[in-house]
Structures are given as structure tokens and as C-alpha cells.
């Protein structure tokens, strides 16, 4: 793509750089001119009305979605259409989904060991040690031998976080991780995410949990109609939104809670 | 009715009939193994990005499912030697059963694969697994679980279809029975007995599949 952009986004402590990313579904523009740079250790919260492109944006970062224009770099790797760079990026980027997507035919432990063994080619003992350590970190080690269907939603989501962490990712993407949970389970998942943020993990979270945004985000980004409308540190974002569209959105979701 | 039942030829032929049962199990189990391989392979090709492979599998399924098994087995037995491939009746029967069962298995297994949520596949890809790994490690087992009852009844049907292989004198229960019947003319006794044998064979097959299901597909789901 264009040289000035790729040079300007390639600084040493840059973790993710998106430059002029555009995506269409036919005539519908899902992402328009997305420019986003995330530094190492930075915590980003992405919010916006449904259909605004937030999930699409983070799904482009690990190539679950393709895009037609622009450039995405993760770490030092420029994401292309080839399996090599896609694999390289996916090994460094963990993702947590709204519906957990644990593998139902594997125990919690097996869920966590699968990718390290098959993708990173770790030995069984090493993969198991890592899995147990991370299951301990999300406080669910005692459920290691159970199957996903035997766990509550909140427990499943914490396992999903541990499963992603087992790949030792440099970045974690969260796609509405608490939206499918019963209200009483939201906190245990948010607490896990907060702990992760405090350990310095680079994170991009699509969420409407504005309390979480206030507490951990370095920047809050508001999207509408496939474009980034506004980005600011949480203080400024919540108290001093510059755009009318942002004010309206905040009014709607803060009212709801 | 002054037909006198006489089971002597059946009793004398019992060892042969039991060997015939074994032959039937051999045909059925080998045919199923081949059908599973064709079924899974067919599903992979059926949904591959390579269009000719998709068409080929579609045509294969249509061809097999819309022609009689008896004709298929005759075709393989009598037509292939013209192409220089000469096979004994029993291997021929196994191939015919595998091909026939495989065509049905493709459609059944494909239904199971399509029932697996996109989220499962995305979770696998996001963890850095390749497409083939995602299919083998994540999709296949839950897919087979979903359609296992249908696959079981298809394979019980395949087991019973082995009797058609008597038409090319493959070694199995019906051809053994035919031989005893033509030597003794005790048609009612012979076919009555093997009817019960087939019932028992079907029951054993169903137990066999129930055990596989309990062993591999018993993980809890919501």
C-alpha cells in the first residue's frame, strides 16, 4: 500500500497498526478508512451501536474477516492473504468470543492444550503445565476435567480466556465477551479481564461495559457506520464527548444501566 | 397342509451357516469401514474450494443413490474385468457395499458438518489451527455425534444389503443358505432360520454402534 502510511505506523512499540482499512459487503461499506494504532500494553475499548463495524474491525486483525483496502500490521508482521502471515499473526493474537466457542467434545484442560500442541507443537507435558497455570490464573483450575456444557456461562468464558492465553499471545481481542452472559456472571469475567489488563496485556475490547472502560481503558473508541467517529481517554470520552453522535450513544447506553 | 417340517438339513448345515454369518459380518464391517472413508473424504471434497471436485462428488452421490445396488454390484463384477480389473466376489462385494454406503454416508455426514456452528471453526482458526486441523480436531467429532443415529440405521441397512452379494456368490449367509436350500429343497426351514440369523446380526450391529456411541460420543451437551 502507500509508503508514507506504512512507515509512519511502524514504530518500535507499536503492536497493531491499521492504515486506511476499508471493507465492503457488496455495496455496503462495513469499514471505511480505519486508521488505528495500538501501542504495546495499551488497553482499547471499542464501542458503538450494533452494526457499526466494531466486531468486523477486530476480526480483521486476525483475518477472520478479509478487507479490500488498506494495511494491517501486527507486531512486525504485515498481514497478507497468504497462509504464512495469517498463521504468524493468529499465533500472536488471542481472541475471546461472545458465545465462548469452547469445543464441546473436549474437557476444559483439553480445550486449553489443543492449540499449543497442534499449532505451536509444544509437548503434552509443557502444554498441560501452561494450561493448568492459566486455568489457575482465571480461578477455574478445579474444573479442568469437566466438559464445557457442565460449566456456567461465566465459567466458560473464563476458560475461553485461559484457552487464548495458553498460546502466549501478545495481543488479546475481546468480541463482546459479556454480552451473552447472565447479569450475575458479568463481574467474574470483567474481573478476569481487569486482572489481565493490570498485568500489561495489550487488549482491544468490544464491549458496552462502560464501567470496565472507565476502569482500565487507555482509550475509548466510538464507531458508527463503519467509521471511527471519536477516540479519547475515558475521562474525556465520557465527560466531554466532542461529537453529537457519541453524546447520543452515551446517553442511550448509560441510561440503560 | 401336509407339509412336514424337517430341519435336518439346517442342523447339518449349521456350521456352514455360522461361517456364513461370519462372512456377512466381514462384508458388513469392511464395507462400513470403506463407506466411512468415502463418506468423510467425500464431504471434504464436496465442500472444497475446487469446483470440479464438488461436481464429481455430487454426480457420484446422485449416480449411486439413484441406481439399484444389484446393478451396481453386477457392474463392478462384470464390467471391471473388461477394463482389466479382475476381482474375486468377496472383495467385489466389499467395494460395492463401501461405494454404495459411502454415497449415503456423504450426505448424512455432510448434514452433521453443516450443523456445527461457525463459531467453532472461527475459534479454531483464531487459535492458529489450519483449516484441515479445524475439520479433523474440532468439527468432525461433534458432527459425527450429531448424525450418529442416522449413520447407525444406514449401516444396519448396509449389513442387510450384504445378502445381495449372494448374486455374485460372495461368501456370506444368504449364499450359504441358497446352497443348502438347493441341495435339500427345504426352502421354508432354511430361509426361516436365516431370517432369525439376520435379526440377530442386526441386533449385534446396533449394540456395536451403541457401544461406539457410549465410548466416543458420550460427552455432555446442553
TrEMBL record, chain A:
It holds the Pfam family ABC_tran. Keywords: ATP-binding, Nucleotide-binding, Transport. PROSITE patterns: ABC_TRANSPORTER_1 (PS00211), ABC_TRANSPORTER_2 (PS50893). The keyword Transport applies. Residues 16-250 form the ABC transporter domain. SUPFAM superfamilies: P-loop containing nucleoside triphosphate hydrolases (SSF52540). One of its GO terms (molecular function) is ABC-type amino acid transporter activity. It comes from the Bacteria. Belongs to the ABC transporter superfamily. This is Glutamine ABC transporter ATP-binding protein. The gene is glnQ.
From TrEMBL, chain B:
Keywords: Amino-acid transport, Cell membrane, Membrane, Transmembrane, Transmembrane helix, Transport. The keyword Transport applies. GO terms for biological process: amino acid transport. One of its GO terms (molecular function) is transmembrane transporter activity. It comes from the Bacteria. It is a multi-pass membrane protein. Pfam families: BPD_transp_1 (PF00528). It is found in: Cell inner membrane; Cell membrane. Residues 21-209 form the ABC transmembrane type-1 domain. Its main location: membrane. One of its GO terms (cellular component) is ATP-binding cassette (ABC) transporter complex. The chain crosses the membrane at residues 17-45, 66-85, 146-170, 190-212. The keyword Transport applies. NCBIfam families: HEQRo_perm_3TM. Belongs to the binding-protein-dependent transport system permease family. HisMQ subfamily. The complex is composed of two ATP-binding proteins (GltL), two transmembrane proteins (GltJ and GltK) and a solute-binding protein (GltI). Part of the ABC transporter complex GltIJKL involved in glutamate and aspartate uptake. Probably responsible for the translocation of the substrate across the membrane. This is Glutamate/aspartate import permease protein GltK. It comes from Bosea thiooxidans.
Amino acid at each position: 500500500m502507500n509508503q508514507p502510511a506504512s512507515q509512519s505506523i511502524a514504530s518500535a512499540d507499536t503492536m497493531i497498526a491499521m492504515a486506511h482499512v476499508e471493507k465492503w459487503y457488496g455495496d455496503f461499506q462495513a469499514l471505511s478508512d480505519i486508521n488505528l494504532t495500538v501501542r504495546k500494553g495499551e488497553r482499547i475499548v471499542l464501542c458503538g451501536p450494533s452494526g457499526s463495524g466494531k466486531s468486523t474491525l477486530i476480526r480483521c486483525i486476525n483475518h477472520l474477516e478479509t478487507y479490500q483496502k488498506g494495511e494491517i500490521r501486527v507486531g512486525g508482521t504485515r498481514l497478507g492473504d497468504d497462509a504464512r502471515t495469517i498463521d504468524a499473526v493468529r499465533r500472536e493474537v488471542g481472541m475471546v468470543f461472545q458465545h465462548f466457542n469452547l469445543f464441546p467434545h473436549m474437557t476444559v484442560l483439553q480445550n486449553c492444550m489443543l492449540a499449543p500442541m497442534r499449532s505451536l507443537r509444544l509437548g503434552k507435558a509443557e502444554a498441560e503445565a501452561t494450561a493448568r497455570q492459566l486455568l489457575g490464573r482465571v480461578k477455574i483450575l478445579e474444573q479442568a476435567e469437566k466438559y464445557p456444557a457442565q460449566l456456567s456461562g461465566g465459567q466458560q468464558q473464563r476458560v475461553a480466556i485461559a484457552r487464548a492465553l495458553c498460546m502466549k499471545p501478545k495481543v488479546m481481542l475481546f468480541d463482546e465477551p459479556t454480552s451473552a452472559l447472565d447479569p450475575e456472571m458479568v463481574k467474574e469475567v470483567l474481573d478476569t479481564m481487569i486482572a489481565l489488563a493490570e498485568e500489561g496485556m495489550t487488549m482491544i475490547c468490544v464491549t458496552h461495559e462502560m464501567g470496565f472502560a472507565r476502569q482500565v481503558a487507555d482509550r475509548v473508541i466510538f464507531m458508527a457506520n463503519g467509521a471511527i467517529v471519536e477516540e479519547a481517554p475515558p475521562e474525556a470520552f465520557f465527560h466531554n464527548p466532542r461529537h453529537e453522535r457519541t453524546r447520543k450513544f452515551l446517553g442511550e447506553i448509560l441510561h440503560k444501566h | 397342509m401336509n407339509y412336514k417340517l424337517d430341519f435336518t438339513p439346517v442342523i447339518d448345515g449349521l456350521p456352514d451357516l455360522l461361517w456364513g454369518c461370519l462372512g456377512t459380518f466381514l462384508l458388513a464391517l469392511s464395507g462400513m469401514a470403506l463407506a466411512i472413508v468415502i463418506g468423510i473424504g467425500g464431504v471434504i471434497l464436496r465442500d472444497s474450494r475446487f469446483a470440479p471436485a464438488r461436481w464429481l462428488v455430487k454426480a457420484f452421490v446422485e449416480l449411486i443413490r439413484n441406481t439399484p445396488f444389484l446393478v451396481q454390484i453386477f457392474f463392478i463384477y462384470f464390467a471391471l474385468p473388461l477394463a482389466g480389473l479382475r476381482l474375486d466376489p468377496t472383495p467385489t462385494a466389499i467395494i460395492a457395499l463401501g461405494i454404495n454406503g459411502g454415497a449415503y454416508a456423504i450426505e448424512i455426514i455432510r448434514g452433521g458438518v453443516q450443523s456445527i456452528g461457525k463459531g467453532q471453526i472461527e475459534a479454531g482458526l483464531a487459535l492458529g489451527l489450519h483449516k484441515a486441523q479445524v475439520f479433523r480436531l474440532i468439527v468432525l467429532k461433534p458432527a459425527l455425534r450429531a448424525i450418529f443415529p442416522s449413520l447407525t440405521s444406514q449401516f444396519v441397512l448396509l449389513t442387510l444389503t450384504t445378502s445381495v452379494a449372494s448374486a455374485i456368490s460372495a461368501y456370506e449367509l444368504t449364499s450359504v443358505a441358497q446352497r443348502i436350500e438347493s441341495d435339500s429343497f427345504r426352502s421354508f426351514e432354511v430361509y426361516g432360520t436365516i431370517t432369525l440369523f439376520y435379526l440377530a446380526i442386526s441386533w449385534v450391529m446396533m449394540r456395536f454402534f451403541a457401544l461406539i456411541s457410549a465410548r466416543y460420543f458420550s460427552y455432555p451437551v446442553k
